[in-house]
């Protein structure tokens, strides 16, 4: 069971990485804006970027995938428990936690450029294929995570760190 929870956290991390990877770059400006007005403008621009790119929908997809994975691993748990758990998880909270990451890695000017890009035809196409890319990336990450965990367990068994599985 510990491996399942560890695996889920790895998959969630990989999935989030793949979802956000389309927007990631090396930080260019980690200095906080020098006025509250600039800070508010940057936050609003990031939220506009999130609206354009569907980050909230992607966040909801991640949460749904996680819950479905948990359901399949813990089938003895009644559906009402999963429904209650799902109701407690808010994609807005995840989005609020992602916003500071964008603030860290992008200047306000770069956010504006991203907004302009996502309003172009290729930007709009990127937005429409991100969910498919995310799902396929999730599937690849899941298969990769399972294979990596199996290799690690075999190595740990071979080296005598854990008992062989039955």
Estimate what percentage of residues fall within beta strands: under 5%
Low-confidence stretches: 1-28
Count of strand segments: 0
* Quaternary state of the chains: single chain
Arithmetic mean pLDDT: 81
Shape: elongated
Distance between the termini: 14 Å
Order of helices and strands: HHHHHHH
Q: Classify the helix fraction into a percent range.
A: over 70%
Question: What is the alpha-carbon Rg in Å?
Answer: 19 Å
Task: Summarize the structure in words.
- The radius of gyration is 19 Å and the shape is elongated.
- The chain has seven helices and no strands.
- The chain has helices at residues 2-21, 36-53, 55-73, 79-88, 91-105, 108-118, 121-158.
- It is an all-alpha fold and 166 residues long.
How would you describe this structure in keywords?
79% helix; 7 helices; elongated; mainly alpha; 166 residues
List the helices and strands and how they pair.
Elements: H1 2-21, H2 36-53, H3 55-73, H4 79-88, H5 91-105, H6 108-118, H7 121-158
Helix pairs in contact: 1-3, 1-7, 2-5, 2-6, 3-4, 3-5
Summarize the structure.
The chain has about 170 residues and is an all-alpha fold. α1 packs antiparallel against α3 (about 55-75).
